[in-house]
Design brief:
Blueprint lengths: L1 H5 L21 H11 L49 H16 L1
Length: 104
């Protein structure tokens, strides 16, 4: 589909050559193999154990897993929304919050 889009004006006049996977990759099987071999996650996973106060939240605002004793989560999985920047600093602050909380 991307090849069809790029072959239309005005993009067609701006594209010199297809670099990857290259014009030799024409079958669907070859394109699928290229995508499988060369793609992956570009961002950290987040929000899989969303923190909140509603019924759909898995983790409470104090990072405790709902319904379990002595289990907390302190990583990007608790973030209910993805921030616009790199999540490294946010993850460090989440873990710092839990560390201070557990030390009492």
């Amino acid at each position: 589909m991307l090849r069809r889009i790029v072959s239309q004006s005005p993009l067609a006049g701006m594209v010199m050559d297809e670099i990857k996977p290259g014009p030799h990759s024409t079958s669907e099987a070859a394109l699928v193999e290229y995508v499988k071999a060369r793609t992956g996650l570009a961002y950290h996973a987040w929000g899989t154990c969303r923190m909140g106060i509603d019924n759909n939240a898995v983790v409470t605002p104090d990072l405790k897993v709902k319904g379990l004793e002595n289990l907390w989560i302190a990583d990007a999985s608790v973030m209910p929304e993805l921030i616009s920047g790199n999540i490294n600093a946010a993850c460090m602050m989440i873990s710092e919050k839990l560390g201070r909380q557990l030390r009492g």
